[in-house]
Amino acid sequence: MMKLQQADGKIALVAGATRGAGRAIAIKLGETGATVYVTGRTTRKHTSPMKRKETIEETAELVTKAGGKGVPLQIDHTYEGQVQALVEEIQQNEGRLDIAVNDVWGGDPLTDWMAAVGDHNLRNGLQLLQQAVTSHIITTHYAVPLLRKSNQALLIEITDGTDYSYRGNFYYSLAKISNIHMASAAAHDLRKDRITACAVTPGFLRSEAMLDLFGVTEDNWQDGVKQDPHFIASETPFYLGEAIKHLSLDPNFQRFSGKVLSTWELSDIYNFNDADGRRPHWGNYYNEHLT
């Protein structure tokens, strides 16, 4: 097992940490003792168009409970002024940023999986790209100067998939493949700034929304296999969170600059399991059952 460095009070921003992958990433970074700024649109007083019950305040409290310091800030990352104000607040409070994770999504209700390009609702498709691509560009633009103040910074794009193949929907594919290329391009641009940029993908993510879709809970999630046999290879958001946690603690994470990584690959490298004790390997499962 690779030896990881000790936590040293890192400052992190998880953009899109209200629920799912973002929440799990924030909590796992909290386990390292990091101060984690958690952003999103849903608060205890305001519900986003996602119409979900999870809030950024809950995420921040879970970060603090895990051993870090959670700081919730209501931010819509598609608005430049809000992101600029966010980074200015981190600058004023912390003086630097060590980890930035672009996880803003919110595209599930905007994606029509049955509609081909030309038939898909154009407004929804463009809004999806605004949320999943433009928001990441805006966040990266304002975060980079603060990342440069870190001794060794990490900029992570959360994506879906490890290559450039079609992902079942025109707009979804554009978004997720863009996230991969953004990490690659940022790694090239920032290679002299001690900023490591990479993309990380989960496998079949068993998020709160996915559990609701299948009508199951985390306790009986395997019942979802009755609806989709591939659900047996799913993973909790904490598998991705554990991957990001270990990556952030690796003293040699620079070797991954420009790469697209996966939960299953990083679990092999760092020897960790999912929250339920399993070690799902979506890459192997996909090759054996879906190709």
TrEMBL record:
Entries under InterPro entries matching the protein: NAD(P)-bd_dom_sf, SDR_fam
Domain of life: Bacteria
Protein name: Pyridoxal 4-dehydrogenase
Originating organism: Virgibacillus massiliensis
Gene name linked to the record: pldh-t
